[in-house]
Write a structure and sequence with these properties.
The protein is mainly α and 145 residues long. It folds into 2 domains: 2-111, Orthogonal Bundle (Non-ribosomal Peptide Synthetase Peptidyl Carrier Protein, Chain A), CATH 1.10.1200; 113-145, no CATH class. 63% of the residues lie in helices and 0% in strands. 4% of the residues are buried.
């Protein structure tokens, strides 16, 4: 039982699980905002377009509990939340890609060997050269990186 508890603790304390928990909490709060948007702004627009009244006219089947207006509101909720999540994921992926590129460039710059430079004209020369091909200046002891 102790092994199970320690494995569970290790799983819960992993960074990904904590990030996911924060995401779920923020997603729940954002869903509340989107629900308020559809209830208070989009539904009245639907009422105005379909003829107004206390219910969403034309979208409720008379004498039944079937309410197409509520269904349309749920679909709009879903689409708005999905669009925002898509844009967030796309932004995060773009940032991670840019960070990986910068890291890769930094590693490549660190791995490149230094190129010898002429002490007279500061132009690049081949390693071991005794004269600069640019200024013909003599390089004592040969060019070294």
């Amino acid at each position: 039982m102790k092994k199970f508890a320690s494995e569970f603790k290790e799983f819960v304390m992993r960074g990904n699980v904590m990030d996911m928990a924060v995401g779920v909490i923020i997603g729940g709060a954002f869903t509340g905002i989107v629900t308020a948007l559809t209830t208070n702004i989009i539904n009245p627009l639907i009422k105005a377009i379909t003829g107004g009244g206390t219910g969403i006219s034309g979208l409720v089947v008379p004498g039944t509990e079937i309410d197409f207006g509520a269904f349309i509101s749920a679909i709009i909720n879903f689409l708005i939340v999905a669009l925002i999540v898509f844009m967030l994921v796309k932004s995060v992926n773009k940032l991670e890609h840019a960070a990986a590129k910068l890291t890769k460039k930094g590693e490549e710059a660190a791995e490149e060997p230094a190129i010898p430079v002429c002490p007279h004209c500061l132009e690049e020369v081949k390693e071991g050269a005794t004269r600069c091909p640019h200024c013909a200046g003599e390089i004592e002891g040969g060019a070294k990186a």
